[in-house]
Design goal:
The protein is an all-alpha fold. It contains twelve helices and no strands. Helix 3 runs antiparallel to helix 4.
């Protein structure tokens, strides 16, 4: 009897299952389950643009995500770029980097890829922490932004990427400079010189390079390395004559 009861009930359960599926599909078709019922894809995209302009990152993200999964829209690369900008504006730099890269990968020949490349650079720069912390993202940003600057040299995008690259170089140099200064204050001359030399050799174009040379002069004088101090003075005055440390040196700063 139990087997018979199960055999009788199962068809009804199957009927109820398909009724739920059909009803759900009808509900969705009528727009009940859509985030923007009654609006076209173009209208949803415009809502996203408006939200982006008003810095309503949550609503902008929601709108552009909906556009990207909707058929019949002929500006998908732009929607992808705007989605990335929404994440960036909200400070979600990892998500922004992912979406900028997705634009490059999915639509490599579209004009939006130029701005997406800069977006990847900007996102990595956004993830760069203060100099006292690990600088992995800073190094990635410096390399990526440098590549974008070279690829689009002579353009606004290239110039902006170059600025980001310079900022990252200065941050990396600042970290080593601060470490050198830390050792110098504690009388650990050899350790301080190692870090100051790293600044000069690895980041010669940074704003910290002339300062590192300036500190090296003082360090050499502290241990009576007169010849090394004099050589370093000549290097500072010859390589960075317009820098503040060079001007201080000429005015008798050291």
């Amino acid at each position: 009897m139990e087997f018979l009861a199960k055999s009788v009930k199962s068809p009804f359960r199957e009927v109820r299952y398909w009724l739920v599926v059909i009803t759900g599909a009808s509900f969705l078709a009528c727009g009940g389950g859509l985030p923007y019922p009654g609006l076209s894809v173009e209208e949803v995209y415009n809502l996203g643009v408006g939200a982006l302009e008003e810095q309503n990152w949550k609503e902008a993200t929601k709108a552009f995500e909906e556009v990207l999964v909707s058929p019949g829209f002929d500006r998908m690369p732009e929607a992808g770029l705007q989605l990335a900008e929404s994440h960036f504006g909200a400070g979600r730099f990892i998500a922004a980097r992912t979406e900028f890269q997705r634009v490059i990968d999915r639509w490599p020949t579209d004009t939006t890829t130029v701005y997406a490349a800069l977006g990847v650079c900007r996102s990595l720069a956004g993830m760069s922490p203060i100099p006292q912390r690990d600088q992995t993202f800073t190094r990635q940003a410096q390399i990526t932004c440098g590549q974008v600057a070279a690829q689009f040299a002579g353009t606004v995008v290239g110039l902006r990427a170059s600025e980001f690259s310079t900022d990252m170089v200065n941050k990396l140099a600042e970290r080593d400079y601060n470490t050198g200064s830390h050792y110098l204050k504690r009388g650990l001359i050899d350790s301080s010189l190692l870090y100051f030399e790293e600044v000069v050799e690895s980041f010669p174009d940074s704003k910290w390079a002339p300062w590192a040379l300036y500190q090296m002069i003082g360090a050499f004088e502290m241990i009576n390395y007169a010849r090394d101090a004099e050589t370093t003075k000549e290097l500072l005055l010859g390589s960075y004559p317009e820098s503040e440390p060079a001007q201080m040196l000429e005015n008798g700063g050291k």
